[in-house]
Amino acid sequence: MNSNIFSVVQKIGRSFFLPMSVLPVAGILLGIGASFTNPNTIKTFNLENILGDGTFLHGVLVIMSSVGSIIFSNLPIIFALAVALGMARNEKAVAVLASALSFLAMNTTVNALLKLSGQILPDGSYSSNTLQGAITTMCGIETLQMGVFGGIVVGLVTAFLHNKFYKQQLPMVLSYFAGIRFVPIICVIAHIFVGAILFFIWPTIQQGIFAISNLIMASGYIGTFIFGFMERILIPYGLHHVFYIPFWQTGLGGTAIVDGVTITGAQNIFFAQLASPNVTQFSVEACRFMTGKYSFMMAGLPAAALAMYHCAKPENKKIVGGLLVSAALTSFVTGITEPIEFTFLFIAPALFVLHCVLAGFSFVLMHMLNICIGTTFSCGLIDFILYGVLQGQAKTNWLMILPVFVGYFVLYYFIFKFVILKFNLPTPGRGDSTENKLYTKEDYLNKKKSSNIKTDATNNDTLSPIIIDGLGGTDNILDINSCATRLRITIKDNTKINETILKQTGSAGIIQKGNGIQIIYGPQVSIIHSNLEEYIAYMNKPIDKSTHDSSTIKGELKAVSDGKVISLSNVPDETFSSKALGDGYAIQPSKGEVVAPISGTITMLMEKTNHAIGIKTDDDIDILIHIGIDTVTLNGVGFTPLVKIGQKVNIGDKLVNFDKNYIEKNHLCSDIIVIILNNNNTPKIKYTTDIIAKAGKTTIGIW
Fold first, then answer.
1. Of residues 139, 287, 483, 669, which has the active-site annotation?
2. What is the full DSSP assignment across 566-630?
3. Catalytic residue at 483?
4. Where is the domain boundary, 202, 221, 246?
5. Is the domain of 644 the same as that of 554?
6. Source organism's superkingdom (predicted)?
């Protein structure tokens, strides 16, 4: 359960990243536009003739500022759309549309309740009992000030309903509204209730947020350190977005009044002050959650890269130097730190923890020195110039960060160099066996990965394989679409169409013209369409034979059963996953049938238990097929052999039938393992996994 929760939180974090990745563009537009339309800036640099009111450039800059500002002003609905997009499993476009409608429905419901309760008066003014800043305008609707929390709630609820109902079947009289058409309907209805619930509980939640915010603010430098440390330490798990975004976008990051408007969230406060011509100094209390990253992104991590370069062997420095310079410049200019951070996280986790501690102290230093430089996404040179230098010393105190840069450069360089040499860490360029490469987040996660791969892509879907068979296979399908009643498919070769098979799927009629075919299913076609696309997404991905001349391919290993092909390393038995007996693949079978994956002679059939079969090819390649894990304990119950020792078999010939349900009812794994046993004749085989295979037809390995 914990791993499932962790996976969901990671997915939410990735959903948050999409709207956050848009903010740099919005920030650049707002930063440049607001900076050079500010009367004080224009006067300071004597630019009245070029940028003053009425000039062409002034108009352009006003437009830039307005476009950037509108993106920040509408982040709640942007988050609603992005979370729905990221959390939806399939038919993502429908989820996004449903989320937009749900957001409007929820806020309209809140608006109606505000009027009915007398908090919004008939003349449009607010009741004297309404707290200042409690009501805001979103998409033209006066509603409660929920910030991005409101959008996140809408996105999560919409995604949940979408994943549950996008294949929903309805009675025939209502079948037109089944499938994906049902999603916006149920979402809009549900968000009327969501809006009503939030109307009653949000004020209490808001008070709780403000209380926590006040506690954080009162904690002073200790709270700042904890924030900076946690923001870094969560990066390996992809959860840092989940952690810092509430501080940037909600009342957790503080509240301020800018030009008479109540603004919540550290980043929102900074950009509201940036756009205001009346602000003379940016809020340090807001910037304490942002500015701290500049020191280690622009100075500390480039210094760590220099230390790794100086610790590399002389003969490797030329190659490693190019890699590290590129990574250091990326961190310095853009604030993207992954190549450096994940390199020492991969080889020395303790060094990464130390980096997180230094990051926490960087946030504290910025807070203590009253340095306030905002950011849109990551703290590199671009943001430093836009939101620090161009805004002036009076607003940002940016000059004070320069000695901090020097200190952090020296600190990181000597700490990293000492630790690398002291503990002989295999950083890039050190040791004969060390790869001269930088590591990524994927490398780190792959190092830790050990869980089985599972999918429910084909659960309860019996039509899709038949439809694909009738259409001539996945390779014959170019495009799939549907209207109200028909599945519309474009194919490569119409001679491969088998209408007899297609009619077995319940089709009411088939219309074929050229390379286009329409299969009539009625209103339930949207569900069939979704199932078909989901099935094809997990269907056989053809092995890349581009690096093999067809004349040099000596053999192919086919699927031993219908089902999901997984890597041998994911089999829950160390004997097989360690590949001690040899390499191979495994299948999570969809039915209890085993066929020959290759032509040869049956050399073994496990006596009495019948759960293991051996095949020897004409090239003396030995193959072991093992049905299930620990199924020897069943003493042959549920296994029916269809071959004998010494019998010749061809690819696709049936070998054994087994009772898959019986195996699983006995709490045993039913995975079928295929191993090429180690011997002098074992070829080097290239495998394809993570696909849905068809017994005796799908190629899993070639040599």
1. 483
2. EEGGGSS-HHHHTTSS--EEEEEESSSEEE-SS-EEEEEE-TTT--EEEEE-TT--EEEEEESSS
3. yes
4. 202
5. yes
6. Bacteria
